[in-house]
Amino acid sequence: MVRIASKQPRKQRKARYNAPHHQRGSLMHAALAKDLREKYQKRSTRVIHGDTVKVMRGSHAGHEGLVNTVMMKKLQIVVDGVIIKKADGTEVPRPVDPSNVMIVKLNLDDKLREDILKRK
Hints:
Blueprint: H1 9-17, H2 21-27, E1 29-32, H3 34-40, E2 44-46, E3 52-55, E4 64-71, E5 76-85, E6 91-96, E7 101-105, H4 111-118
Parallel strand pairs: 1-7
Antiparallel strand pairs: 1-2, 3-4, 3-7, 4-5, 5-6
């Protein structure tokens, strides 16, 4: 977890932008849906490619879709179907902050992820 030492938003943003790789994983966590929360006894977990998420905030609130891309550098995710129109009419994916989504279905293809979810 990134340790935020300052009260100033400017320094808090700088801490997020310049966070080392081993701390960026904790910034990529999202809340779990109620049934998953009861099953795994965890409130949140890291978002990975292939998870199904529901957007909870913003203009795309209520939209469900698969996570197409996880951008560790920008600390954002791209959800299938969350798009915006540019001025010339082309549609581009709209990156979403992981704190603004809820994980509805987990991608359990990886054995390591199951172990992470089951440990306390």
